[in-house]
Amino acid sequence: MLPLTLSKYTAPFGDIMLVTDQAGRLRALDYPDHRMRMHRLLREHYGEHVLSPGPVPHDLADKLDRYFRGELTALENVEVITAGTDLQEKVWAALRAIPAGETRSYGQLAKELGMNDPLAAREVGEVNNANPVAIVTPCHRVIAKNGELKGYAGGVHRKKWLLEHEHALPLPPAKAEPPMAQLPGF
Predict the structure, then answer these.
(1) Which of 18, 21, 30, 87 could lock onto 7 through a cystine, CB 3.0 to 4.6 A?
(2) Is 144 exposed, middle or buried (0-12, 13-18, 19+ CB in 10 A)?
(3) Residues 68 and 164 sit within 8 Å (Cβ to Cβ)
(4) Which residues are catalytic?
């Protein structure tokens, strides 16, 4: 059985759950209201495991602190261990290559991975949904082709917060100024 540690970290938008192994490597990052999803993914990826409460590894806490203070590259070197399929690992690696402050559409990401099937964008979306390490493997940086914030396992409100934090949301179209009233003498 794989021994894992479950820790709580308080982010600016609320708590997050971290699962690390004995070497302090990140195995999962999810949200308390998605606890069942996290446990399901842990079972799918690792089979039998023992999850015990413990502190956040110091190095990981430091990197999360720096990220949330605005050092957006602080999570780039967090060591992540996942046990996905070949396709999942390929997509998750591509997610980690999207720089903070940028987004990709599901279709763009599929094309970057050499997937030319018109349905590949859906496949990329399914793999994103199975990402066990939110934020660090930044699936929140993948948006719909039209710029909409589609699907995020942690909730669209968190996706929006993360993209705003990273200054990655496109600016809304400028609103036209209302015409000045044509009053006599003005």
Answers:
(1) 18
(2) middle
(3) no
(4) 139
